[in-house]
Amino acid sequence: MNTWSTQYTFTPFALSTTDSLPDLAMINLSDWGMVTLVGPDSKSYLQGQLTCDVVSLSADKSTVAGHCDAKGKLRTIMRVFHYQNGYGLVQRQSVMASQLPELKKYAVFSKTEITQSSAIILGLTGTQAQTTIDSHFNGDADVRHNDTATAIKVDNARWLIITTAEQADSVITNLAPTATLTTTELWNLYDIKAAQPRIDNTTELEFIPQAVNLQAVDGISFKKGCYTGQETVARAKYRGINKRAMYIVTGAATQCPQAGDALERSVGENWRKGGTVICGYHYADDQAIALVVLPNDLDDDSQFRFATTPDALWHKLDLPYDLNAE
């Protein structure tokens, strides 16, 4: 039950592999949170912390970005956009307790106030999502504002909606009163099909950005100045030190793969650890799909399994983007 909602209830949406996605769904993204930065030094401060080029980010766009440690390992992946008088950073709630203090670590030397927001984050998805946004927000930008909410375009079928606890019910009533109201699992499915990387607390500080395809979703600028972890990220690009990538895999399953779970791969007649789950989705007909970080030199016909269900073999699916594109 959502503590902020007095009018609406969000329930899991049972979906089999043969079902179509809802034409319009409103998703309670309670496992996502937002950090805000306000102050004259916010832009330059983020420029020195994140993998994206914050300086060139216009007010009508958003971008994916990573925040790394000094060794280039990801603390989090976030969506960055101009918000109110500063910036909004949407990321997984599970990393907040460990990542936010690191983001704040050097802020004492800059004029920026970094705060975990109490905003409500909703997702609007489906073939009718764009039309719905166009009907309630002026303009054609990828980041739009009205009196009650901010809308951020994720892709052609998805928008993030940022609002307050006081306004959330009325936003749903006005924006999408006939939408299917559901929980974060549907958003996870969209992320998996789009091969959109994320970091949870179970995978924090495990991967460099290229190991989860951050460069393929325009989350890394190789032309900006220095930022935390840049040396490792640049070396992975120019010296080819990265040996992993994130893939979509699917197979039979009785439960949903969880972030941090280990996937085994076949090596001849033997099995060994092959990769780490980033995000999973379990269908109602006992099939599942997941994002998994694997070695990037595996054969296309490689087989995979979870040790808990050794008879259920999994295989890779095609990615929606080219990992080798410049």
| CATH architecture verdict of the largest domain | 2-Layer Sandwich
Return the CATH class of the largest domain: Alpha Beta
Apparent shape: globular
Uncertain spans, ≥5 residues at pLDDT below 50?
A: none
Count of individual domains: 2
Structural class: alpha+beta
CATH homologous superfamily of the largest domain, by name? Probable tRNA modification gtpase trme, domain 1
Our measurement of the CA-to-CA distance between the termini, rounded to an integer number of angstroms, reads 45 Å
Q: SSE order in H/E notation?
A: EEHEEEHEEHEEEHEHHEEEEEE
What gyration radius follows from the Cα positions, in whole Å? 20 Å
- Main sheet summary: 6 strands, mixed
Protein name: tRNA-modifying protein YgfZ
Keywords: Cytoplasm, Folate-binding, tRNA processing
Main location: cytoplasm
Family: Belongs to the tRNA-modifying YgfZ family.
